[in-house]
Amino acid sequence: MKAKKSLSASHITQYFSPNFQVSSQAKIHCFACLDSTNTWLKDNGECGDVCIAEQQTAGRGRRGKQWLSPNVENIYCSVKWCFKSVPAHLSLLSLVVGLSIVKALEKIGLTEHGVKWPNDIFWHQQKMGGVLIEAISSSSKKYEQQVVIGFGLNVNMPESAGKLIDQPWVSLNNVLGVTVNRHQLLAYVLESLTQELRNFEAFNIQQFQHDWQCWDVLKGKEVRVLQEQQEGSGIVEGIDGQGRIAIKLISGEVKYYTSAEIRLKK
Hints:
This protein has two domains: about 10-215, BirA Bifunctional Protein, domain 2 (2-Layer Sandwich); about 220-265, Roll (SH3 type barrels). The protein has six helices and twelve strands. The protein has helices at about 10-15, 35-45, 95-105, 170-175, 180-200, 205-215, and strands at about 30, 50-55, 75-85, 115, 120-125, 125-135, 145-155, 220-225, 230-240, 245-250, 255, 260-265. The longest helix is centred in the last third of the chain and has 17 residues, at about 180-200.
């Protein structure tokens, strides 16, 4: 059996586009095992640094959920990014990150995928990946806002490794029918994400909303909304300029949510 190839910075960077320039100060840190790539970057990373682990012992998803991290199968990665001033549209960052990932997945040959609000990566109503963004208190005079952007993607994950996952999930290799080159995929994601982050302070809200409509897997779907132990249902109408999801309730009222668990009705 062929040994699985561990991720390395040199193999990732060879897949960057010729015109893509990374910061000379930024480094890609690769580890066999960490508790969490987000935690490592918060404690050790510099602005622009990337942290990758082949396995996480305490990987986290949204709402404090555990992110299962089988060894040398998937992508578990975090990026530390610093803004000179606090962007007025910072609430849209997690949605923008989700869009950058689905665009990168298209480059690897995936189709019929998209983003489930606010930033989960889905294919045919099955979860393929997710994003967790954490703000960092900044003591720097140069940067007012610092964040760590973590993302996980199911890439070459065997079915046996996902027995404890409590929702429908899918791995990229199962969809494409081949073992996926993780170095190439990660290069595509980092390039796409970095370009979005560099342009984020000069944000074009009209372009963003257009892009979101193209990739929104919930648009026009009937969903259940769970928030603070209350449950409702309605039809998703899209998002507003603040990144809130708009849902038309059974009563006819359109309600906007900044934080809620949205589940497709079966």
